[in-house]
Design a protein that fits this description.
This protein is low in regular secondary structure and 1020 residues long. 6% of the residues lie in helices and 4% in strands. The strands form six sheets. It has a three-stranded antiparallel sheet with strand order 9-10-11, with no helix packed on it. Strands 12-13-14 form a three-stranded antiparallel sheet, with no helix packed on it. Strand 5 and strand 6 form a beta hairpin. The longest helix has 11 residues. The N and C termini lie far apart (149 Å).
């Protein structure tokens, strides 16, 4: 802040006026105590007005020409003191003129016109009466009272006079800036020594007044030669200022260079050890290394167009000037502070910069350059997250070579200037020499691999003779520009963002700050066995990169135990060398299995057998599940068919096919056609097989070990008799001469055709007679003897059994197709003609009247087989169907509950269907073919009375005697010609009465009839 202090040039003006310098004496001018005003002693020696001694000491003068109470003629104060020129002494009341007298003193030096000050008035120091006897004039003893008027008391002055000198009088500078040489003048000294310029205020005034002695610059009452040009306005209680043309350098700084910053402070000092001078010039003005600091950065600068020098905050408070901190000092969230000696928290000295500056709280009065050296505000380079590069110009366009500031106007301007457009990664880390951004050198300049920012970077990045070149994006976000999000916007250490390689194959990497874990690159998703899959980042001695640290050699788990890596991996060379480093640790397990064989992973390449021993883990002990009885099954044998891999496993078309290596060990069992032959349902517990065709699951019982232990390979589980008994149990013949029926074995029990033993078929020499293949031949045999003999060889369900020949193989659907064995000549119901043995003659009981019953005739609807064969079988193998007696069972349904059948004669009796219409007493010969008409079963219109009377109720009366036709009472069953029109209502187990002419028939016991032709009658 620039402070302008008003300069007032005064010269010991009136402080007090000491009227009545001889206040202790009489009124006489002769120095005595008489009251002779004019010095002639007329008042007498005693000093009384009347000449007596009693009035001695009376201060009131006697006016010879005027009465007491009025001023002398002409009203002139000078009639008592002063003279014709002035009322001020000399002359005092006693007529004395010596200025050494108190009553004279400096009166005339104050009152009267002056070339340098305002004419002081009597009332500045005394009460001036209107009348001589006014109170306060002559009513008190000498000396005259001092009452100090407006001017002496200006600006709060409190004047006093001790009888010798004045003090605290405005007129003598008591309220001006300090520095006056004599502000308490002696009243009786009138030699001018107490009134020259500099006695009331210094030249220029001290204190807060600018130390500028060209008074006329601000004060219009004085000229350049220090001459008071308007005395009447000097020492008049007002400071006359004319500052319209003032500049800041008028009070401080230098007009010569136009810089308002000290040196020169407002009191003229230039020593930088002074607080008001200090480092002003080090900040303001043009600089070759920093922006020109301006006054507003630390102070309020008054607006010349506004209040100007009088603006609030400028010269309205005592020195020192206030520090108000402008935008620059507060930039970037800084909180500046000034303690009178040092600045702190100021943007300009590095408060918000990265740490490292050697002096961010500079001392104001130290201006030797030590506090402005490069490195005091920020280290070179800055600390914290700033790169340790010293080539500042690479990022900062304001910098030149050799730590010089190329553009000072942009240095310390509130903005960190960065031009990163052409910046490369190696500008901050890595090496520009080889173009590799990976440390060593980290962003802090470190190169020791023990530093986290260095560590194993170089072990990963760059070309390698054994692995793919790792790139920065595998672990970090690589910014498109240096200022991109995620790069420099957070403190160290750098974030790990894990790229596609590190997370390949579902890996979930983490970094503890010391070691990596869960990283694809170090074997997280590989088969187990790597000795160090969580490497320490700062260990770079090669021990963590040796073959076997990420995966064992060969890998464990389900990986083959072969160490010939090149057989499957085209990236490998001989002796565990990497032939194609670019494809090693690249997120892909490279396999070229086009030339691989099964024996590359298991079995033996020497004999071409893929079955262990050797399992995929290199084991050969049969106690290992992966080895077990493989060799006991596969390969040529002297007693059984050669078992193949597909009998128990899916054999892949390629090594990588689904179901082969895509799941963990042990290998899946998928059970092929042989193991599941004849309806077997195999399973494996991990130790034993069960339900397997090969070990007798579907054979006749008797095998001693049909659930063999997989790891037992001493031959005990393969001996004859373990899978089936000798001979087999169940329905098998008890003969032990196997060769009688089985061509694959000789009389000694030796398997002579191993390829046909345990091949899914029971090989049997046929013992059937000639022509057996004809359906009528073996069908009749089955009808006469039942299926038991068939089932002994072909199985209980005749689907193959021990001979492996199913009836279905030649006769699909035969079990449920009735016409396969019988019927099918003139209908599809299965009812003969065509007996099981093929006969079709009517007189054959197996044929008989089947056709007339199962087909619709003029008498009734078609009847189902259940009328006489109840229940009807659903399959040829249904119980009671083919039971070996050679004849069909006749079981009547509910329409003929009491009927009987004689299989010898073929005659049915107690039939409803062939009864007389009233009782169930009908009889029918199954083998005859009569022509049936109405009276074949019951009487009709031409029947005898006896036949009609045998029928129920009044049939005889109605039919024979009245000649009433059947249609009159059975209109829904028969027509007027006697034809059956309601086939479903005829022979259906109940009488159907429907009165043609109306009326009602009520069944009951007895039934009654109330037809239209007569009244209600009982039907008896």
């Amino acid at each position: 802040m620039r402070r302008v202090t008003i300069l007032i040039s005064t010269a010991s003006l009136i402080a007090t006026l000491g009227c009545g310098a001889g206040g202790g004496q009489g009124l006489g001018g002769d120095g005595g105590d008489d009251a002779d005003v004019y010095g002639d002693g007329g008042l007498g020696e005693g000093g009384n007005l009347d000449g007596s001694s009693e009035d001695a000491g009376l201060l009131r003068p006697v006016f010879p020409t005027a009465p007491v109470g009025t001023l002398p003629s002409g009203g002139e104060c000078s009639e008592c003191h002063g003279d014709g020129l002035s009322a001020a002494p000399p002359v005092d009341l006693e007529g004395r003129t010596d200025t050494a007298e108190r009553g004279v003193g400096a009166h005339r030096s104050h009152l009267r016109s002056s070339a340098w000050h305002r004419e002081v008035q009597c009332d500045d120091c005394h009460l001036v009466p209107i009348n001589v006897d006014d109170p306060g004039h002559i009513d008190t003893p000498w000396p005259a009272e001092l009452t100090f008027g407006t001017v002496p008391t200006r600006r709060g002055a409190d004047p006093s006079f001790d009888g010798t000198s004045c003090s605290d009088v405005y007129c003598h500078g008591s309220r001006l800036d300090p520095g006056g040489t004599l502000t308490t003048p002696t009243w009786t000294i009138v030699d001018g020594s107490q009134a020259f310029c500099g006695t009331c205020h210094s030249l220029p005034p001290e204190g807060s007044h600018p130390q500028y002695d060209a008074c006329s610059t601000c004060h219009p009452t004085i000229d350049a030669s220090w001459t008071i040009t308007a005395p009447e306005r000097h020492v008049d209680g007002m400071l006359d200022l004319e500052i319209a043309d003032l500049t800041c350098t008028s009070c401080h700084g230098s007009e010569a260079d136009g810089t308002p910053a000290p040196p020169r402070d407002t009191v003229g000092r230039t020593d930088t050890s002074e607080r008001t001078v200090g480092a002003h010039r080090s900040h303001l003005g043009v600089s070759d290394w920093h922006k020109e600091v301006v006054c507003t950065d630390c102070h309020i600068v008054p607006d010349p167009a506004g209040a100007g020098i009088w603006a609030t905050g400028h010269i309205d408070t005592p020195r020192p000037a206030e520090v108000t901190w402008g935008d620059l000092a507060n930039t970037d969230g800084a909180s500046p502070d000034w303690n009178g000696t040092t600045c702190s928290g100021v943007y300009c000295h590095g408060e918000t910069l990265l740490p490292g500056g050697t002096n961010t709280t500079p001392e104001w009065t130290t201006v030797d350059g030590s506090q402005a050296a490069c490195g005091t505000c920020h280290s070179t380079p800055p600390g914290g997250t700033h790169p340790r590069a010293t080539n500042c110009a690479a990022c900062h366009p304001t910098m030149g070579p050799g730590m010089t500031i190329a553009d000072p106007s942009r240095h310390i301007n509130g903005i960190v200037d960065l031009d990163l457009g052409s910046l490369s990664c190696t500008a901050c880390h890595g090496s520009a020499a080889d173009g590799t951004p990976a440390p060593p050198r980290d962003t802090r300049g470190g190169s020791a691999t023990t530093r986290r920012g260095v560590g194993a970077h170089r072990s990963h990045l760059g070309t390698s003779d054994w692995h793919k070149e790792v790139v920065c994006t595998d672990c970090h976000v690589v910014p498109a520009t240096v200022g991109a999000a995620g790069h420099l916007d957070s403190p160290l250490p750098a974030e790990l963002t894990w790229g596609a390689l590190a997370t390949a194959d579902g890996a979930s990497p983490t970094f503890s700050g010391t070691s990596c874990s869960g990283v694809y690159c170090h074997g997280e998703t590989l088969l187990p066995g790597g000795t160090n899959t969580t490497p320490t980042w700062t260990t770079v001695d090669g021990s963590q990169a040796a073959c076997g640290t990420c995966h064992s050699t060969p890998p464990r788990g389900g990986h083959p135990s072969s160490t010939n890596c090149a057989a499957c991996h085209p990236t490998m060379g001989p002796g565990l060398t990497i032939a194609d480093p670019a494809r090693h640790i690249n997120g892909v397990v490279d396999l070229d299995l086009s030339g691989a064989t099964c024996t590359d992973c298991h079995g033996s390449a020497a004999d071409g057998t893929p079955a262990p021993p050797r399992d995929t883990l290199g084991g050969t002990a049969t106690s290992r599940r992966g080895v077990g009885a493989h060799r006991s099954h596969l390969g040529t044998s002297g007693w059984h068919k050669q078992v193949v891999c597909a009998d128990c496993h899916v054999v892949p078309a390629t090594i990588t096919a689904a179901g082969h290596m895509d799941t963990a060990l042990p290998a899946e069992l998928t059970w092929g056609a042989l193991a599941t032959a004849d309806g077997a349902s195999p399973s494996f517990s991990g130790t034993t097989c069960s339900g397997v065709y090969c070990h007798g699951e579907t054979l006749l019982p008797g095998g001693t070990n049909t659930t063999p232990n997989w790891r037992t390979v001493n031959g005990s589980q393969a001996a004859c008799g373990t899978c089936h008994g000798l001979p087999p149990g169940g329905t098998h013949p008890t003969s032990t001469n196997c060769s009688t029926c089985h061509p694959t074995v000789n009389a000694a029990g030796t398997i002579i055709q191993p390829a046909r033993h345990i091949n899914g078929l029971v090989d049997i020499i046929s013992n059937h007679p000639a022509g057996w293949s004809a359906g009528s031949s073996h069908g009749m045999t089955a009808n006469n003897n039942g299926f038991s003999s068939c089932q002994a060889c072909h199985g209980a369900d005749l689907r193959g059994g021990i001979v492996g020949v199913s009836c279905e193989s030649c006769h699909p659907g035969w079990k449920t197709n009735c016409t396969f064995c019988h019927g099918g000549v003139d209908n599809a119901t299965g009812a003969p003609p065509a007996a099981v043995d093929g006969r079709t003659g009517r007189n054959t009981i197996a044929v008989g009247a089947h056709t007339e019953h199962v087909g619709t005739t003029s008498m009734h609807v078609a009847w189902d087989c259940t009328r006489c064969h109840n229940p009807k079988p659903t399959s040829a193998l249904s119980p009671g169907h083919i039971d070996g007696d050679g004849q069909a069972e006749v079981i009547f349904d509910s329409m003929n509950p009491s009927a009987t059948y004689n299989p010898a004669t073929g005659v049915c009796a107690n039939l409803y269907c062939h009864g007389n219409g009233s009782s169930r007493l009908g009889t029918a010969d199954w083998n005859t073919n009569p022509t049936l008409q109405c009276d074949s079963c019951h009487a009709y219109t031409w029947s005898s009375r006896t036949d009609l009377q045998a029928m129920s109720g009044q049939h005889d009366r109605h039919v024979r005697r009245k000649g009433i036709a059947c249609v009159e009472c059975h209109a829904t069953v028969v027509d007027s010609s006697g034809n059956i029109i309601g086939l479903a209502l005829h022979v259906n187990g109940q009488p159907e009465v429907s009165l043609r002419r109306g009326g009602r028939f009520t069944p009951g016991a007895p039934p009654s009839c109330n037809p239209a032709c007569h009244g209600n009658e009982v039907w008896r």
